[in-house]
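explain this:

___
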Amino acid sequence: MDTQLRVGLIGAGSWARTVHAPGLSDHPGTALSAVWTRREDVAAALAEDYAARACASFDELLSEVDAVAFAVPPSVQAGLAVRAAEAGKHVILEKPLATTVADAERVAGAVAEAGVASLLVLTLRYALRTREWLDGLAAAGGWTGGSARWLSGALLGETYGNSPWRHTEGALGDVGPHAFDLMDAALGEITAVLAAHRTEGDLWHVLLEHAGTATSTVALTTRLPMRPTVVEFAVYGEQGYRTLGRAPNATAESYTALLDDFAAMIASGTRKHPCDVHRGVHLQRILAECLRVAG
């Protein structure tokens, strides 16, 4: 791009401060130009750190930027994202996209109608080692099953323990999108939730059916005293057994790769991406089906 993309950041929590703000500020194709939250003092403090403008309202921020990055709860994101798209702003969206399928579809509809670019912050998917792993699986073929385990104590710690939406959505809404997205990318589109069980301690076990003949299992929790967090993916079939873990401290690198793709989409006029807003709708439907099946 000839000029940096002016990006406004919505939210100033831990994820906004440690991932979005430094990533947008450091990337050569973007500039963190404005910040808005419902707490003006918090927005002002974050904006000052990056020589950005603290806006008094969401509408004021929209008037100052080319794109909007969201770091707010899904219930808040859905409505604001629709307004951003309708204002012609490209959007970087957090997972889950919304709290209901209907709201997720409204966001996707607004994005499509406006013709703006969109990406979902599925950080694991943008990592180079993940892309290489998926490319290798696609080239080999013949995979019949897989499994994913995302086991952490994130909600027991200080960083995310004070996040109300994470307590409300639980592991399914917080880390479920990451796990389902990668199993879907590895084995083919998830077409059905065959079984789903949630314990009183919010440990999820899910059995998935994929297009074709593959099936997979997923275990999720954010309330076990695990250190470090266990993130493991595996597939198996005619070509043997292949695994993928999450590289430590790779979030910043993955977010940079996301911004690479985002800037390239806008510069080229491309609007389709494996992790665009429509991916968010697909994942929202899987979350809803898990809840339905689990009862």
User: Anything to note?
Assistant: The chain has a mean pLDDT of 95. The chain has two domains: 5-123+252-276, 128-246. DSSP finds twelve helices and twelve strands in the chain.
